[in-house]
Amino acid sequence: MATSPPKGTRYVRHFARSAFAALALAATITGCFTGERPRFGCAPGESTGRTEIDEVLNRFECVATSTFKADYTVLTRLGDIDSAATVVQASSGRRSITINDVRFVYDNGRTLTCDLVSETCEAVINEARTSDLLLTSEFYAQSMASRLRVDAERRIGDPVASNVVVGGQPALCVAVPVTGGTKTYCALESGALALFDGSDLLVELTSYSSTPDEAAFGT
Q1: Among residues 91, 107, 111, 62, which one has the least CA distance to residue 212?
Q2: Which residues of 87-122 are buried (b: 16+ CB within 10 A; e: fewer)?
Q3: SS3 for 22?
Q4: Angle of the 51-61 helix axis to the 142-154 helix axis, nearest 10
Q5: Contact 155, 176 (CB under 8 A)
Q6: Tens digit of pLDDT for each residue in 158-210?
Q7: Phi, psi of 99 (to 5 degrees)
Q8: On the CB side of 57, how many CA atoms lie within 13 Å of its CA?
């Protein structure tokens, strides 16, 4: 003769099924709103509500977990100024950003802005040294994340995602239509900028290595 399971057992089974269903629903909702899941050790900012934008944003905002060397060409459209830039990220948050003859160094709590021609340094990050180029020491990721968030709010149409190869590296892109034209942001898997094409700047990756160059920390 079959017997029914004790009342307590039925309650536990029902609770387990309900909890599993709730977790599954939460995971589905989270995936819909946040797009690509962030990499381990990274906490991206608030979602813009568009997956195409969020996936590129997540890469920019997670760049601090990566190590690499990246070379760029830069066109400052106001004044038609050509520049070269190199970014090196090493372990423990060490960074070196060289824009023409100016080098910004973040090295184990030490910050420097150096002139590579006169071989002089000041013990601060002096962003004014490259302001005429419309570039900061964060141009390769965090500045782009800030720009992209602003354009996400100001967009006048749907963003368009694409995958391209820049500087020999695969990159994820989003084109955002705004008043005056369309701005394109592309990020490597590491989070480093691959391409930015806007009304004021054109920044393009020319070469990339996952191995940091320690010589870039020389001052």
Answers
A1: 91
A2: bbbbeeebbbbbbbebbbbbeeeebbbbeeeeeebe
A3: helix
A4: 160
A5: yes
A6: 999 999 999 999 999 999 999 999 999 999 999 999 999 999 999 999 999 99
A7: -125, 110
A8: 24
